[in-house]
Specification:
The structure holds 3 protein chains of 3 kinds. By secondary structure, chain A is an all-alpha fold. Chain A is 74% helix and 0% strand. By secondary structure, chain B is an alpha/beta fold. The chains are: A mainly alpha, B alpha/beta, C mainly alpha.
């Protein structure tokens, strides 16, 4: 009985999602980006860090063998753009996973424990949310030495607070439901109840909010890289590529313009996908 | 005798996902000067849509008045421009809604909401219109009106809020007051006070009232004439006396039989099985045929017209077949 | 009303204390002993000990925490390692500049957002409404630094009509009052626009939704039944109600605006707290980093407090305490 309800929930949600052109467009964009990231070495026309023959290769305009032009080191912008998708996608994915993991655990503890534990946790969450995200990130980055993994970790570790509120609110409603009360009455251990019943029930909400958050995290990474505090060069990152074009805006507009467009398309893709999933699977929760 | 309001073949439709639904279907009635007419029917029969149609406040889209005419003292309201219609609303025709709390704007004081109508239609300045608003509060028997002027709706009781609504509606001495279930949402103890207030004010101000209700006993207290509405149109029309003594339509009989059991808040008739039909799926022939205890073969074949059953008494039922109206 | 404000005030104080504690922990996480810069053979161990005592570093951690907290709350944020000046004097220069930028952006985004949102609500499902929905989605997804560069490319480099950096032109001090003023405004246009545009998109969406919700209410029908014009119905009866939740949204947008200021200030060489923050990170000037972080957060908390009070002033139901829990 429960199985069929579950299956029809997913399949009817999927039906709704398929009929939403915006959501499907988002899905297509995101899937294409992952394919590009995966096959970057195959489809890229050149090498992302190959300098070419300086100075003749420097700042070549779009066209010919360099479809999107070259940067000040004579590197092919298109190639670096394709490779740059790897950073954005990996960071988006792992950072959100970290953020969801921390947020879910903290939210579950707060929601389940209740009382003083809940109040203390929620006050700390309030305080952390009052600190502007970028300032919190920068403060943490200032304190530690910089590496790509640290950046990813910090992006995740500074964005879990919204998940806490979401998970906690879900738990508070589910906690009152019969099957949880019954499970507790039957003597099931607290932690077991959380893991077995509560977390799966909040999964949809978590996944949707995570998808909607990836766009913001990608933007934050791009901002850090633009400030020179993100992924260390020469690894191609879109934010950093925009930064590199900054001094030659008028003469070589393409160096900054294309990576910016790439960021926009990626973020739009995730936002459309998240909106589509939300509308399809959780029409009431968010509307 | 010239009528104050004459509604002819009023038809109001709503665009729904399943098609065009006729909430009001070729509905005709009139109201004389100083007369109180009760419009009675179950919820969903088109009473409130009729009220909104007269005010031309049916939300468009999805709703639309698609046919008929509404004459106020000979003036066809449906042919007026929106600007001309605004001079009628709140001025010549006013309305009191069912839910006083949600019908009052929460961020303005009660006094301000009355004052606004006065200033709009009577071209009064702020001070003058404020004095008039206080006077209206006194008229609807709100104690300490000078201070109550500054109260917000949430600071008042349900009965007080409805008094404010009535004060607002009457502030420009309308010729016609439409009272759409004015006491239904209130506590039983307050209901009769509100009805009493309305009937006192009607006598004092010599206006006409269209009293919309699902409760025939309310009508008995106040109205002179009753129109029974079913599935978008009138099924019986008679004086109050005759409706109670000699009902002609089986639906009216059902309504009468249900009076003692009617819970004031549950708008449902226990003695008539079934519900008002969906306007998209009217039964063939008479629109009451699927629920009627006295139905015959012919009831499914053709919809009956209004038959004359006595002086000023009309019934839309084959059982009363005779001269057509 | 008084009780409501007092409650919110207490909550804000608690938040500030928690943020202070977090800052204290972050400070202890920061690499190196604060004394490491006295790691010099020319300074005698005895002097180091004296300085350590002077700074209170010989005391137990809880006592250090209390002392440190007291000095932070007094506005004594220590000394900048880079400039060897009190951090508070650096902040005194930077804060007004950041405020000028963020307040300009705030004003701009509220005005643009509210107007666009109202128009969308009035002309629901029109071409304008659809276009602004798509535009909002697009604007959300634009990295602000990229937008800034594109606008600089267009307005400063190509057409040369707007300045691209600093708060005023060189040598402007000799000019008249009006010239100085318009010079300042010209410098403010691009950064304030870039900083506010994403929030404007959010505001427009929110305003639209809020208006559409309100327009479904019964009291709107009552207002129309009074004979009021659509203009009064919209601008008086609907807008007053729709604006109430908007105040909260403005409060919630503050962290976003101040965070965005970091990048905008850096790009437009605007001498505010964001630029100070980034430069201090590169210089590993921890006292400044922590102080800026703290001050910005206090600004957010105060802003939210102001939004709560504004909410209470706009909604009479809160003022009388009936909806205080909400």
């Amino acid at each position: 009985m429960k199985e069929t309800i579950k299956r029809s929930y997913w399949s009817s949600g999927w039906d709704r999602f398929r009929k939403n052109p915006m959501g499907m467009a988002g899905a297509v964009i995101v899937v294409s980006l992952y394919l590009i990231a995966l096959f970057a070495p195959v489809i890229a026309p050149g090498d992302p860090v190959d300098h070419g023959d300086l100075p003749s290769m420097r700042h070549l305009p779009p066209g010919g063998s360099h479809l999107l032009g070259t940067d000040k080191f004579g590197r092919d912008v298109l190639t670096r753009l394709l490779y740059g998708s790897r950073i954005s996608l990996v960071i988006g994915f792992i950072a959100v996973a970290i953020s969801v993991l921390i947020g879910t655990i903290v939210g579950a503890v707060a929601g389940y424990a209740g009382g003083i534990v809940d109040s203390v946790i929620m006050r700390i969450v309030d305080a952390l949310m009052a600190i502007p995200r970028l300032f919190l990130l920068l403060t943490c980055i200032a304190l530690f030495s910089r590496s790509i993994w640290l950046i990813i970790f910090l992006l995740g570790a500074t964005s879990w607070m919204a998940t806490v509120r979401l998970v906690r609110a879900q738990l508070l409603t589910i906690k009152e439901q019969d099957f949880v009360v019954a499970a507790e009455a039957l003597g099931a251990g607290k932690r077991r109840i959380i893991l077995k019943h509560l977390i799966p029930n909040t999964l949809t909400v978590i996944i949707i909010s995570a998808t909607l958050r990836i766009g913001g995290i990608i933007l934050a990474e791009a901002a850090l890289s633009f400030l020179g505090l993100g992924v260390p060069p020469p690894t191609p990152s879109w934010g950093q590529m925009v930064f590199e074009g900054r001094e030659v805006l008028l003469g070589a507009w393409w160096v900054s313009t294309f990576p910016g467009l790439a960021i926009i398309i990626t973020v739009i893709g995730y936002n459309l996908l998240g909106d589509g999933l939300r509308d399809a699977f959780d029409p009431v929760q968010f509307s | 005798m010239d009528k104050l309001l004459k509604v002819e073949n009023l038809t109001t439709e709503f665009l729904t996902s399943e098609g065009l639904a006729r909430a009001v279907d070729r509905f005709s009635f009139d109201i004389g000067h100083g007369e109180t007419v009760g419009l009675v029917g179950e919820s969903g029969c088109g009473k409130s849509v009729t009220a909104l149609s007269i005010m031309r406040l049916v939300s468009d889209p999805p709703g639309r008045i698609s046919g008929g005419s509404i004459f106020l003292e000979g003036k066809d309201l449906l042919s007026l421009t929106e600007k001309e219609m605004r001079k009628i609303r709140g001025n010549e025709i006013a309305i009191v809604f069912q839910e006083p709390l949600s019908s009052l704007n929460p961020v303005f004081t009660c006094g301000e909401q009355i004052r606004e109508a006065i200033a709009l239609h009577q071209k009064m300045g702020r001070k003058q219109s404020r004095e008039k608003a206080v006077e209206m509060l006194r008229l609807v028997k709100i104690p300490d009106p000078g201070n109550r002027y500054f109260s917000y709706p949430h600071q008042m009781s349900g009965g007080m809020r409805q008094r404010v609504m009535i004060a607002m509606a009457l502030s420009c001495q309308p010729k016609l007051l439409i009272a759409d279930e004015p006491s239904t949402a209130l506590d039983v103890s307050v209901q009769s006070q509100i009805m009493e207030l309305l009937s006192d004010l009607r006598d004092a101000m010599s206006m006409s009232i269209l009293l919309i209700t699902h409760d025939l006993s309310v009508v008995a207290q106040m109205a002179e004439r009753v129109i029974i509405m079913y599935a978008g149109t009138a099924v019986e029309e008679a004086s109050v006396k005759e409706i109670f003594s000699d009902p002609g339509h089986p639906y009216t009989e059902g309504l009468l039989a249900s009076i003692p059991r009617l819970n004031a808040r549950v708008e449902r008739l226990s003695v008539i099985p079934g519900n008002v039909p969906d306007p998209l799926n009217l039964p063939s022939g008479c629109r009451f045929s699927d629920r009627c205890p006295k139905r015959e073969e012919r009831c499914f074949a053709k919809e009956p017209p209004m038959f004359v059953a006595g002086k000023g008494h009309f019934v839309r039922c084959w059982l009363s077949e005779g001269q057509e109206r | 009303m008084t009780r409501f404000v007092a409650e919110r005030l207490l909550q804000s104080v608690i938040l500030v204390l928690i943020v202070l504690t977090i800052t204290f922990f972050l400070m202890h996480l920061s690499p190196g002993d604060p004394m490491s810069r006295y790691d010099d053979p020319n300074i005698s161990p005895e002097t180091v000990r004296l300085i350590r005592e002077q700074l209170g570093l010989d005391k137990p951690v809880p006592e250090q925490y209390m002392r440190w907290m007291a000095s932070f709350l007094r506005g004594d944020f220590g000394v900048s390692l880079r400039f060897n000046r009190p951090v508070s004097s650096l902040l005194a220069e930077a804060i007004p500049n950041t405020l000028r930028l963020t307040i300009a952006a705030l004003t701009l985004y509220i005005v643009i957002g509210v107007i666009l949102g109202l128009l969308s609500a009035v002309r629901r499902y029109s071409l304008f409404d659809r276009l602004s929905t798509i535009a909002a989605l697009f604007v959300y997804s634009i990295p602000s630094f990229w937008l800034a560069l594109m606008l600089i490319l267009l307005f400063s480099l190509k057409f040369e009509i707007l300045p691209s950096s600093h708060m005023q032109s060189m040598g402007v001090s000799g000019m008249g009052w009006l010239a100085r003023f318009s010079d300042r405004i010209a410098h403010l246009v691009l950064p304030a626009f870039v900083l506010g545009v994403a929030s404007a998109a959010g505001m427009a969406r929110y305003m639209r939704g809020s208006m559409l919700d309100v327009l479904r209410e019964d009291y709107i029908r009552t207002a129309r039944a009074k004979g009021l014009s659509e203009r009064s119905v919209f601008l008086k009866h609907a807008f007053r109600n729709a604006a109430i939740p908007i105040v909260t949204i403005i409060g919630l947008s503050l962290p976003f605006l101040l965070g965005g200021a970091v990048i905008i200030e850096k790009i437009f060489s605007w001498p505010g707290m964001g630029a100070l923050m980034v430069d201090s990170i590169f210089a590993r000037d921890y006292p400044v980093v922590l102080a800026v972080n703290f001050v910005v957060t206090v600004m957010v908390i105060l802003g939210n407090l102001a939004a709560d009070i504004g909410y209470a002033l706009l909604d009479p139901r809160i003022a009388s305490g009936r909806k205080a829990g909400k």
